Amino acid sequence: MQPDRCYRRQDLLPSIPAGACGVDEAGRGPLAGPVMAAAVMVTDQDLSWVRDSKQVSPAQRMRWADRIRQEMPYAVASASAEEVDRLNIFQATLLAMRRAVNALSVMPSGLWVDGLHAPSMDLPTCAVVQGDQRMGIISAASILAKVARDEYMVQLASTFPEYGFERHKGYGSAFHLDALRRHGPCAEHRRSFEPLKSALR
């Protein structure tokens, strides 16, 4: 979990060689659904056009995701709501990241991961604070993870239409909380998260 090196906000970042991999996650905070992670390989493409997924509209994310998928090697993986409850959200996030990296068709030469912590793997690993805002390759991973999770939640809404997952993507909106009061949790809800945890005691 401890990376070989952690770059703080004030640190100057080095150039990233081809063959390295950016890693980020989406969905740590919602009350339902999996946590998703994406791994994107560095190639020769200029990534100055990519921004953190939280800073752009859903339509822009979709356009960028299509371009990243076409131009760069990538993989997306997840840890389920059940794994979030069993392992805790921190460990489930690291698990999703490991799965994404292991799903790449070619093993990268090293990992550049958003945040302070990184999955434990037999690869040189650097954590970058605010990496999704500072490094194009991590921003690309954040885009793919967010788009994949949103797509999953929209599909989930067809199975559990009463919760409106297509609207809030599992976050604790007023609509979602009201649906939980009326219907109780479904199989995709994280029972270790409040307010579900207290309600289920």
Write structural notes for this entry:
The protein has 201 residues and is α/β, with parallel strands linked by helices. Helix content is 40%, strand content 16%. The protein contains eight helices and six strands. The protein has helices spanning 58-71, 81-87, 89-102, 131-134, 136-159, 165-168, 174-183, 196-199; strands at residues 5-7, 20-26, 35-41, 74-79, 110-114, 125-128. Strands 1-6-5-2-3-4 form a six-stranded mixed beta sheet. A hairpin with an 8-residue loop joins β2 and β3 (35-41). α1 (58-71) crosses α5 and α2 crosses α3 (89-102). The protein is globular and about 50 Å long. The relative contact order is 0.22. The mean pLDDT is 94.
Q: Which terms summarize this structure?
A:
alpha/beta; 201 residues; 16% strand; 6-stranded mixed beta sheet; Nucleotidyltransferase, domain 5
Number of domains: 1
Q: Can you tell me the CATH superfamily?
A: Ribonuclease H-like superfamily/Ribonuclease H
What pattern of helices and strands is seen along the backbone? Answer: EEEHEHHEEHHHHH
Helix proportion = 40-55%
The CATH class is identified as: Alpha Beta
- Give the beta-strand count: 6
**Mean pLDDT, nearest integer?**
94
Read across the widest sheet, the strand sequence of neighbours is: 1-6-5-2-3-4
* Global structural class: alpha/beta
Named CATH architecture: 2-Layer Sandwich
**Beta-strand residue percentage:** 15-25%
**Cα shape:** globular
Q: Tell me the Rg in angstroms.
A: 17 Å
